[in-house]
Specification:
19% strand; elongated
Length: 316
């Protein structure tokens, strides 16, 4: 018996083994775990830059308050009655009266305030701003009548006039002359309102005057973080950035219905409701909502802007 076999037999046997190996590989590939399908691999890939979720756009900032054009104001969060009156050149007391507010602090977001006086409303006007009383000539002359009888108290003179008799008046000694009294100097006039003394709000160069480049106040130019001081004692009634064109703004109420305003601050050192004393540092100069570092300063009374230079002491 031969050990090998024919060549054809050996080729046939090799073909059978090869076929069995192929079939076994196919079966193994169907049952054993293998690489994920193409669709699964595509889903598992990390997202590229273009596929990443875009961030939400930043929220719009709160609307800044401007003077009303229709006589109404809808209160927004952060508004105060003093700020609303300030931007509309009104007296806060009139605003509270026209809207029947028991207190300037009792306002709420969404409430609509009227900015004009209702019919038969009484508006607060300072005496020095009231028109002078002028006399008007009468259309016809007055008819003057002499009374028919006059009741006079009894005296010798009245009896002589009524009866026609002559009465010699008694001799009365002249009273002694009073001793001369040294004249006193006239009293100094009281200061305007009830603010006895005003101080300058900050050091720096005067760059804008009332009615000109300073608008409703004056502009003082200085270095950033120059101290801003209260011009008189009072109470902080507004601290915020809600008034367009003023940046970080402080409003302080003083005696005599005076208000002082400090705008474009870099930072504020007090809060609403705080009592401040004259000369107290209340803010630091900056350029918020301004084209340069400066302090815009205003004085108002009954809502009316006044020239601060009429109240501040002269600089040496």
């Amino acid at each position: 018996m031969a050990t090998g076999g024919s060549v054809s037999d050996r080729l046939a046997t090799a073909s059978v083994y090869t076929l069995v190996s192929v079939v076994a590989s196919v079966l193994a590939g169907c049952t054993a775990p293998g690489p994920a399908p193409v669709s699964d691999r595509a889903a598992a890939r990390p997202a590229t830059r273009t596929e990443q979720v875009k961030p939400e756009p930043p929220r719009a900032s709160a609307l800044q308050m401007i003077a009303s054009s229709n006589g109404l104001h809808t209160i927004q969060r952060g508004d105060t009655l003093y700020a609303i009156a300030f931007v509309n050149n009104l007296d806060p007391r009139d605003l509270a009266s026209w809207n029947t507010l028991e207190s300037p602090d009792l306002i709420r977001a969404g409430q609509v305030l009227r900015l004009t006086a209702p019919l038969n409303a009484v508006q607060t006007v300072p005496l020095d701003d009231a028109p002078p009383v002028q006399a008007k000539p009468l259309a016809e002359a007055l008819l003057v009548r002499t009374p028919q009888a006059v009741l006079l108290p009894y005296s010798d003179a009245n009896w002589a006039q009524a009866s026609g008799e002559t009465v010699t008046p008694p001799v009365v000694a002249a009273p002694p002359k009073p001793e001369p009294v040294a004249k006193s100097e006239p009293a100094a006039p009281l200061p305007t309102g009830t603010v006895e003394r005003w101080l300058w709000p900050s050091e720096g160069a005067l760059a804008g005057r009332f009615g000109g480049a300073g608008g409703k106040g004056i502009d003082i130019v200085g270095a950033r973080h120059t101290p801003v001081k209260a011009v008189a004692s009072g109470k902080v009634v507004y601290n915020g950035s809600g008034l367009r064109g003023y940046g970080r703004l402080l409003i302080v109420k003083h005696a005599g219905e005076f208000l002082s305003a400090y705008a474009h601050n870099d930072s504020v050192l007090v809060k609403e409701g705080d009592a401040v004393s004259a000369g107290q540092k209340i803010a630091l100069m900056g350029d918020s909502d301004a084209d340069r570092v400066k302090l815009h300063f205003e004085i108002r009374r009954y809502g009316k802007p006044l020239d601060p230079l009429d109240y501040l002491p002269e600089r040496s």
